[in-house]
Design a protein that fits this description.
InterPro entries: Znf_CCHC, Znf_CCHC_sf
Protein name: CCHC-type domain-containing protein
Keywords: Metal-binding, Zinc, Zinc-finger
GO molecular function, one term: nucleic acid binding
Largest sheet: none
Radius of gyration: 27 Å
Organism: Rhodosorus marinus
Strand content: under 5%
Length: about 200
């Protein structure tokens, strides 16, 4: 029986509140009320400072995943760029990525530790299993038509200058990013050689 004293009622109400909180969040304890602000403060103070780019990506991905819909992709992009240091920072700013995934690809490619972002290929189906599957009808293979019509005006890709897709959907996007990274690396190497030659010409 639930106690009828005020003290007992408060105790039972407190237990019920904690239980409801655990059920709602699916964790053993409720998150503190300032959890979002703590994650944002962590992102504001995040700096690479000589850390490997791959580890810095993992460090930034953790609060991004916890924030979920609380943070926009543009803010992810800005937070990541502001946290980079050294040649990675310069190369990323010169390449002008438009999304958070783009900036990760540029940084990881420059560091020589580009990680695969696509899911692993599915295993092949054995002949025995394939024979039990129902054949796909011709109606199912018919291309799906859009009911909203075509967009007004033709779309031209900013990268390859071809019509029919946006920059973010360009099949050559990663190749362009890699070429930009290689170009920036060559420029940095030429600048370093020019500086060394200038230092050698100076009188001792």
């Amino acid at each position: 029986m639930v106690p009828r004293s005020p003290e007992g009622s408060d105790r039972w109400a407190s237990r019920g509140s904690r239980l409801a909180c655990r059920i709602r969040d699916g964790v053993s304890q409720c998150r503190p009320s300032d959890h979002i602000e703590r994650l944002r403060a962590k992102l504001r103070s995040a700096r690479q400072r000589g850390t490997d780019v791959g580890r810095f990506v993992d460090y930034m991905d953790e609060p991004f995943m916890q924030l979920g819909g609380e943070i926009a992709d543009s803010e992810k992009l800005d937070r990541f760029k502001s946290g980079l240091t050294g040649r990675e920072r310069d190369s990323v700013y010169f390449s002008r990525p438009s999304t958070y995934e783009d900036v990760k690809q540029v940084a990881l490619s420059l560091a020589g530790s580009n990680q695969p972002t696509a899911a692993p290929p599915r295993p092949a189906v054995s002949d025995a299993k394939a024979s039990t599957r129902r054949p796909v009808s011709s109606q199912a293979r018919r291309p799906h038509t859009r009911s909203m019509g075509t967009p007004a005006g033709r779309v031209t890709c900013y990268l390859c200058k071809q019509e029919g897709h946006w920059k973010r959907d360009c099949p050559q996007r990663l190749a362009y990013l890699q070429a930009e990274v290689d170009r920036l690396s060559r420029l940095q190497a030429e600048a370093s050689r020019g500086e060394e030659a200038e230092n050698q010409r100076r009188p001792g």
